[in-house]
Design goal:
- The complex is a heterodimer of chains A (226) and B (834).
- Chain A is 34% helix and 31% strand.
- Chain A has helices at residues 46-53, 76-86, 102-112, 118-128, 144-156, 174-191, 202-206; strands at residues 2-15, 18-31, 35-40, 61-66, 69-70, 87-91, 162-166, 194-199, 210-215, 218-224.
- The longest helix of chain A is centred in the last third of the chain and has 18 residues, at 174-191.
- Classes of the chains: A alpha/beta (226), B alpha+beta (834).
- The interface between A and B is medium-sized, with 30 and 27 residues.
Chain lengths: 226, 834
């Protein structure tokens, strides 16, 4: 079943007085439970595609559908429930709230829903990823790998159906990067979550169910991993 | 070759941090606006009053007395007049009740009985535009319009003045020697001196001001003549002044008012200085990476500090210009603010001196309060590029030295401005005390808030937000609390003053005073009053020495408050008044003391150092009396109830020439009719309706408190600017939070609610701390300073706190609105680029 789809999405940006087309009529459908990697060189439009897929940005042309619902023209408040319950985000720069400790960062999406069991769920997740002793630490007290694990827990606390990961290992050393990737894949398999990941790494691409390659804003290849 | 100042860099620093730069400029402007506009205003008033000092006093020499001049002095004046070295004109000023010929209306008026020649300088402006000398002939009156309005009479109508009937001939619009009349309890009435005898109003003990004006023939003889007359007047309490040395009541009033307003200006300067410092800290923190890069490329600290000093001075210059512009604009508003309190002929203008002083203050304030943030630039290391900072201690030896030096300079500036060492030090200690108390209370409150973990997510996030990195929550709380404490204190003290003097009298307290009653009139008056009335004997006297030390009247008059140089109403009774108690000593008078005794009111101890057992030397109608202080009394209630500074046993003063003073409780509806009856039978008795007096007092207090609150509110603006600066300083963190919350599924209203709750908590915390300080301060001021009963006014206090919370909420939200519009994807993209 298609969980997520784009139909001819185009995105342009202005750089000074030049208009740059970052994505050019890209159409893509993602199946439920799929692990999709979007790869390409810098400037190919892969991060932009991710922001359009996740509703963080709006295309200049084309449509974006989540579970057959067109979200292209939804405003921020209408997108909020999707972001809270349907999506989970993992970023290259972690983007943890600095004034909240690890537990509070993970709990936050659940608390937004009014989940009274948020604290218990957060603690369980953090313990699962090896941060049981670091729950009260603040982001600036965590290492890069610990921050990313915390971010993964936050992305998962509301059992989202889709996880968007934008270069999740980009700021980590190889050991931490590998550990984080394994964690993501393990949780993806366990929960059947659709995982859409942007990456430079060919090694990660080899682990995906499907790889989409972008070049100059267009899909050049789309198929199972090689 | 030494590196050159890079002007483009300086300009870009300013334009790249527009918001913080704007706040910095506003803080500098604020630091000087009050002082420059007050300085200019003061100079305008002083120059208007002094430019025409001769007109302000209506003569070259002014001789004040409370009785006819001593014979030697009068004789000496007559000789000088015969020698044509001067010309004299006397006037007599006193209160009396005038009544219509029908007897249906009467009004307490301020009479001025003038001899021909008055005024020697300036002009009494009449509605008819004719000279006073032409209009004020024997049998005539010249009155203020308000008298005609209140008694419902017209020009040409007659009025009973004492025993005489005089005709109203004209309306007085302006007097040269009374530029403002808000001190008066009744309208002005001019009477010709030729009618003085027929009035029958001046007798022994009457409360009259005897003023002799003199115009000297040779101006260069002015000082020598004044000295000569003072020599002749030596032992008496007659004051001989020249128009240059005389301190008019108006001038004294303005000196005191402006002195106090200057203090509020200095307070605003201090808070604005904190704003300058915190804004610069925030601005430089944002530039930390840039500075780190510059150092990594080889720039020395000196070079970097030099550039940022140039940025600071450029912004300081802009702030100074803005401050001057605002001061100029404020000048246009001041006449309306001070209307009725300043002479009509005052021309308000920005004084060059005040402008120069303002620029110097602006420059010094910028240097003093930016020294620390600029010095700290030395501590930025190149590794800050990687976001790796060492959390070193802010307070090291150098920062303490800089802070101490800055404080000393500020202290010196304040002392120079205030010009009185004792008052200056007292003010500074009070200021430091206020800030210290606010600091400690803010610390305790924030520590408490930090431990709170409310169930509500919005509140919880709001509390976290208060303690986000770089937030200046503590300095905001301290600044707002300190500023608000001053404003709240003024409000609470004013409310207590209103309650004591204006709003209501205690049910049984006297509400009408009768003064200048001759002893023989006592029974007749009691008969008219038909009610229990208290009569107090009044003997006029002066204090000449305390504990053997003679009183120097000139020195005493330098005091801002009441002093021992004036004449006092002495009295005698054997039992305490209902609202008195003894605070020192056992009984009112000591049976075991053989000496003559006196009981003093505790207020007298504030005028001059004295204690139980000291001997005070009085002069009563020229007769010396020594009396030992047997007790000190204190009042248990404030308000307009009768009180006496000096009370003697009956045996000391019973035989002295005296008048009587009566205090009675009269039903409000009966007062006017009673006044008519009393004055018809006893024209010399003045009737003072205290409710009217209270209303006049209330109006003056109201005007003054509006003025004081207006200038004090500038200090609130400093607090608000710090709030705005802090929002800007934490802008990045707020955007970050807002974006993260949005990405995680929070709606915009959630983000707005968190920011709003944060501002509200800040406002309530600051308001509560301010109220706590204000309640204690108001209690002390009311009880100890003003001898008033104190009420805390809980409802009004709560409203003050709520108003504060609302204000901070509005400011915080307004400053945060642009943050809410930030799109998540733009922020994320910027982060990725970094």
């Amino acid at each position: 079943m298609t969980i997520l789809e784009t139909r001819g999405v185009t995105k342009n940006y202005w750089l000074g007085n030049r208009e740059i087309t970052v994505l050019d009529a890209v159409s893509l459908a993602v199946a439920q439970g799929e692990f999709l990697v979007v790869k390409g060189e810098s400037g190919s439009g892969k991060s932009t595609l991710l922001t359009l897929l996740s509703g963080l940005d709006r295309p200049d042309a084309g449509r974006v559908l989540i579970e057959e619902t067109d979200i292209t023209d939804l405003d921020e408040d209408a997108l909020a429930p999707l972001r809270n319950a349907t999506f989970g985000f993992v970023f290259q720069s972690f983007h943890l709230v600095p004034s909240l400790n690890a537990r509070e960062n993970v709990m936050f999406p659940a608390e937004l829903r009014g989940d009274r069991g948020a604290a218990g769920k957060a603690e369980a997740l953090l313990t699962r990823v090896g941060l049981g002793e670091r729950m009260s630490s603040f982001p600036h007290q965590l290492s890069g790998g610990e921050k990313q694990r915390c971010a993964i827990c936050r992305a998962l606390i509301n059992d989202p159906r889709i996880i968007f990961a934008d270069e999740p290992t980009g700021n980590l050393d190889s050991a931490n990067g590998a550990a984080v990737l394994e964690l993501l894949l393990e949780l993806h398999r366990e929960r059947g979550t659709t995982l859409i990941m942007v990456t430079h790494s060919p090694e990660i691409a080899l682990r995906a169910d499907r790889v989409v390659t972008l070049k100059d804003g267009r899909i050049v290849t789309d198929g199972p991993r090689a | 070759m030494a590196p050159v100042l890079n002007l483009r860099f300086i300009a870009r620093q300013i334009t790249g941090a527009k918001r913080q730069s704007a706040v910095f400029v506003l803080c500098v402007a604020l630091s000087m606006i009050t002082l420059v506009s007050l300085g200019s205003f003061s100079r305008s008033v002083q120059s208007s009053l002094l430019r025409d000092a001769q007109a302000l006093h209506a003569g070259d020499l002014i001789i004040h007395a409370h009785a006819p001049l001593p014979a030697p002095l009068q004789a000496h004046l007559d000789i000088l007049a015969l020698q044509k070295r001067l010309v004299c004109a006397r006037y007599y000023e006193f209160y009396s009740v005038l009544r219509t010929t029908s007897g249906e209306g009467s009004l307490l008026c301020n009479l001025k009985v003038v001899e021909p020649g008055y005024p020697f300088y300036g002009r009494v402006l009449l509605a008819s535009r004719r000279p006073l000398s032409e209009v004020l002939t024997p049998g005539s009156l010249v009155v203020e319009q308000s008298l005609l309005d209140r008694l419902r009479i017209h020009l040409g109508d007659a009025l009973r003045v004492g025993n005489a009937t005089l005709t109203v001939r004209d309306v007085v619009l302006q007097e040269p020697d009374r530029p403002v009349n808000f001190f008066a309890l009744g309208p002005r009435v001019f009477v010709a001196a030729a009618d003085l005898g027929s009035l029958g109003l001046i007798g022994a003990g009457s409360r009259v001001e005897y003023v002799t004006l003199a115009k000297v023939t040779q101006p260069k003889e002015l000082d020598s003549l004044a000295a000569d007359l003072r020599r002749v007047a030596a032992d008496s309490r007659v004051r001989v002044e020249t128009y240059q040395s005389a301190d008019s009541r108006v001038k004294r009033f303005f000196d005191n008012l402006l002195f106090f307003l200057n203090l509020s200006g200095i307070f605003t300067l201090l808070l604005a200085g904190f704003g300058i410092q915190s804004t610069l800290f925030a601005l430089l923190k944002e530039q930390e990476r840039t500075i780190a890069v510059m150092k990594a490329l080889g720039a020395r600290s000196r070079f970097i500090i030099g550039h940022f000093l140039a940025v600071t001075l450029a912004l300081g210059l802009a702030g100074t210009a803005a401050g001057l512009a605002a001061s100029f604009a404020l000048q246009g508003f001041l006449p309306a603010l001070f209307r009725g309190l300043i002479p009509a002929r005052v021309e308000l203008a920005l004084s060059g001196w005040a402008v120069s002083e303002g620029m110097l203050i602006g420059f010094l304030v910028v240097l003093l309060f930016t020294a620390l943030p600029l010095y700290r630039l030395k501590e930025v290391k190149p590794r800050a590029i990687f976001g790796k900072e060492e959390a070193g201690s802010f307070w090291n030896r150098s920062t303490w030295v800089i802070a101490a030096t800055g404080s000393c300079f500020f202290l010196a500036m304040v002392l120079v401005r205030i010009r009185e060492l004792k008052t200056g030090l007292f003010f500074i200690f009070s200021l430091v005390g206020l800030v210290l108390v606010a600091y400690l209370l803010a610390g305790a409150a924030l520590r408490y808030l930090r431990t709170r973990n409310p169930g509500n997510l919005i509140l919880r996030q709001a509390l976290k937000g208060l303690f986000r990195p770089r937030s200046a929550t503590r300095s905001i709380t301290v600044t707002l609390s300190a500023a608000l404490a001053v404003i709240f204190t003024i409000t609470l003290v004013e409310k207590n003053l209103d309650a004591s003097f204006i709003d209501s009298f205690p049910p049984l307290a006297p509400n009408v005073f009768f003064i200048d009653i001759q002893p023989a009139q006592r029974d007749g008056l009691a008969g008219i009053l038909g009610t229990a009335a208290q009569f107090f004997p009044i003997v006029r006297g002066t204090v000449n020495a305390v504990a053997g030390q003679p009183i120097d009247p000139e020195q005493e008059r330098l005091s801002r408050g009441d002093n021992l140089a004036r004449e006092f109403n002495l009295t005698y009774y054997e039992k305490l008044l209902p609202d008195e108690r003894i605070s020192e000593g056992k009984t009112l008078f000591r049976a075991d003391w053989p000496d003559q005794q006196v009981s003093v009111l505790d207020t007298v101890l504030k005028m001059h150092k004295m204690k139980l057992g000291d001997t005070i030397s009085f002069k009563v109608q020229g007769i010396p009396i020594q009396a030992r202080i047997a007790s000190v009394r204190t009042r248990t209630e404030g308000g307009f109830t009768p009180f006496f500074y000096f009370v003697f046993p009956k045996t000391v003063l019973a035989e002295a020439p005296q008048t009587l003073f009566c205090a009675a409780r009269i039903e409000k509806g009966r007062i006017a009719e009673l006044q008519n009856q009393v004055v018809a039978r006893f024209p010399n008795i003045s009737v003072i309706d205290l409710t009217e007096t209270a209303a006049v007092f209330g109006r003056i207090m109201g005007r003054l408190s509006v003025i004081v609150r207006f200038f004090t509110s500038f200090s609130m603006v400093a607090g608000i600017l710090i709030v705005v600066s802090s929002v800007f300083a934490t802008r990045y963190a707020r955007i970050q939070e807002a974006v993260y919350f949005t990405i995680l599924g929070a709606r915009r209203r959630f983000v707005l609610a968190v920011f709003a709750a944060e501002s509200l908590i800040l406002g309530i915390t600051s308001g509560v701390i301010a109220l706590g300080i204000a309640q204690v301060a108001s209690l002390i001021i009311s009880r100890r300073g003003l001898d008033l009963e104190y009420h805390p006014y809980p409802v009004e206090s709560l409203l003050l706190v709520l108003a504060t919370a609302l204000l901070v909420l509005c400011v915080g939200l307004a400053a945060s609105l642009s943050i809410l519009r930030q799109k998540p994807v733009s922020f994320l993209r910027e982060q990725a680029d970094e």
